[in-house]
# Entry
Amino acid sequence: MELVDRYVHEVGQYLPSRLRADVEAELRSLLTESLEERARAAGRPADAQLAADVVREFGVPRDVASRYAPEPQYLIGPRLYPAYRMAVKIMIPLLAAVVLVLMVIGQFQHQGEPPSIGPFIRATGSFLSTVLFNLGVMTFVFALVERAMHRREAAGSAWDPATLPPVNDPDRISYFGRIFVLYLIAALALLFNFFPEWVAVVVFNNTDSRVYQLLEPAFSRYLPLLNTWWALAFALNLVVLRQGRWRRTTRWADLALELFNAVILLLLVIGPPVFRYDLLIKVVLQWFLIFSIIKACVMLYRLLVRRTFEPWHAAAAK
Amino acid sequence: MVMGGTQLSLRENLSLELRRGALVLAVLTELRHEEYGYSLKKLLADKGLEIDEGTLYPLLRRLEGQALLKSDWRVEDGRPRRYYRASAQGEKLAKELAAEWQKLAGVIGALIK
# Structure
């Protein structure tokens, strides 16, 4: 019966490919049987009307598929969606403000020249492409976090009250903050690897806009190091997010990453020129390096003097 | 009208919730003997428990995924059918759930008298 085939095919479209063939075969067998039974009861051959009754009773294809699918069929679920919406709501006005500020600076720098709509169109184009890029990265990060959290819950473990953290818990994480860090890391990695020409200063004026790229081709020799750092930092933040809090091991890993970061900064500072305006950028990087070293010292001090609350120790000590 | 509709939907939801756990027990109990999806539906309906197909068949898959049922395809009367049967773990669980059900039914029965 054609309607049954169409129905089974439609349900299959909403199912993961690994389940599709099996569920479709079973569904076809069940619906055919049901249709024949109904035709027998009605005392007439199976026709389109009876087939329509059978599939209508079975339910809307998407709902039926969702009952078969063991995993959530969404990228970002109801738990993370409010945070995602908030992040998007913050990001878009922020990017718009940055573009507006750049345009205003351009206007001030080129006062007296005849007004033109060209820079405005270019600024709008640049704003839209930046929003799309950031939206893509943000969606990717949220989807990844959704998967990670779902897997942790699916693995399941008995909850123990002894694992409740203290009221004043310095190791509690902000989920939103961690997701934002993941987004930053992913955006930076994509930017430096695939769009290095976007690492630039843009000056808008009335008749034209000029883009001054900051990275020289020689910068690519640092990419393997930077990619390693980004990959490790991304993985660490994902682990922290899955665990729901900082632990001693993740704190040590964070310290190691901070030292790694300092080493990369040091190599950039003492290395050959790799930036346009190399001297100026390296002065900025020196300040980053000093900040990174101070941060690493503070992290080490805290690790040595402060006891971290370890939930599994608390549970074992009961 | 809206209030009536809301109350009906609420009653339906609570009724579904009430039935949900019972369905698992019914399915596991009936599948001590091998059945395929459609025959199981008819069997349960004949005993007074109507379950719509859209609920029953995915439930069978889920219970199989949880290792409470096992299944295999067979061709009968020229038609491929998937036969289900409770696994040893499923039968053990069905007994435990049945005991729980009896206890609960007794308590609730006394409460609503």
About this structure: Residues 23 and 55 of chain B are 10 Å apart (CA to CA). The beta strands of chain B are 35-36, 69-76, 79-86. Residues 2-30 of chain B form the longest helix (29 residues).
